[in-house]
Amino acid sequence: MDQTAKQTTNQQHPIGIYLKVWALLFVLSTLSYMVDYFQFQGYLRWTLVLIFMFLKAGFIISIFMHLGWERYALKCTLLLPPLAIGVLIWLMAMEADYTFSSRQLFLGQ
User: Fold this and answer.
1) Which residue has the higher pLDDT, 70 or 41?
2) pTM score, two decimals?
3) What is the domain range of residue 90?
4) CA-based Rg of the chain, rounded to a whole angstrom?
5) Cβ distance 35 to 45 under 8 Å?
6) Cα–Cα distance for residue pair 66/17, rounded to 1 Å
7) Is 109 found in the same domain as 77?
8) 9 and 57 part of one domain
9) How many domains does the chain have?
């Protein structure tokens, strides 16, 4: 058996990285809880909540779902469609806001 075949059959990820990411997820969850504890309001609150949410989701997908060790093509296949959907939702929300504000402007209250 050649060296590359032997490496692929005996490949294991070190448990230390799982424990470090678990601790980091705990810290991010604590920071997310602190946003509510300190009663942040408005855009700051939602910006912090979304940042912590995306960081936690990224670590979970990358490490615990083993996407960090996959090929680039598979990463693009899994991550680009949700990103495209998110961009389209954002564009629709901007258009809806523009339509709503123009209706208020021209048709009155």
Assistant:
1) 41
2) 0.67
3) 72-109
4) 21
5) yes
6) 12
7) yes
8) yes
9) 2
